[in-house]
Every structure is written in structure tokens, then in C-alpha cells.
């Protein structure tokens, strides 16, 4: 994906991460961050702190800008 921050692709990725943490990063082609967000969100939900990583995943997907 060659779109930058604020693009429709980032909005879709952010919405995807809202429903499943890490899915937005996966849509952007970033496998390692996708796995980390998914795993850490699941672990932290056990301690009722998963919402922090969940929101971080949404913001990360929305604000990500590919390197030129």
C-alpha cells in the first residue's frame, strides 16, 4: 500500500484494528506488529487492561506512514 497517513487505506486499517487488534496492521502488510498487537491485547484483557493496547492498535494503524 503506497497511501500515506490520513488515506482511506489507513481509515480502513484503523477500523479493522478496532474490531480485531492487529488486523489493521496486517492489512497494511506489517506482520510482526499485527502479531504483537493481537497477542498482547489478548493477554492484557485478562487483567482488564486490554483496552489500552486495543486503542493503541487503532491509532497505530491510522497514523502509520510508509517509508519512502
What's the arrangement of secondary structure elements?
Blueprint: H1 8-19, H2 23-27, H3 31-45, H4 50-63
Helix pairs in contact: 1-4, 3-4
What does this structure look like?
The chain has 68 residues and is an all-alpha fold. It has one domain (8-63). The chain has helices at 8-19, 23-27, 31-45, 50-63. The protein starts with 7 loop residues before the first helix and ends in a 5-residue tail after the last helix. It is elongated. The protein has four helices and no strands.
As a whole number of angstroms, the C-alpha radius of gyration is: 11 Å
The secondary-structure class comes to mainly alpha
Strand content: under 5%
Overall tally of structural domains: 1
Note the quaternary state here: single chain
Total DSSP helices: 4
- Would you identify the regions where 5 or more consecutive residues have pLDDT less than 50? none
User: Strand-and-helix sequence, N→C?
Assistant: HHHH
> What distance separates the N and C termini?
11 Å
Largest sheet: none
Q: What helical percentage do the residues reach?
A: 55-70%
The number of strands is 0
- What shape does the CA trace take? elongated
Task: Give the mean pLDDT.
Answer: 82
Amino acid at each position: 500500500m503506497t497511501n500515506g497517513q490520513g488515506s482511506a487505506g489507513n481509515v480502513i486499517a484503523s477500523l479493522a484494528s478496532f474490531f480485531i487488534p492487529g488486523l489493521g496492521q496486517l492489512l497494511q502488510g506489517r506482520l510482526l506488529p499485527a502479531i504483537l498487537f493481537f497477542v498482547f491485547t489478548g493477554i492484557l484483557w485478562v487483567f482488564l487492561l486490554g483496552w489500552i493496547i486495543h486503542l493503541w492498535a487503532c491509532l497505530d494503524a491510522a497514523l502509520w506512514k510508509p517509508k519512502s
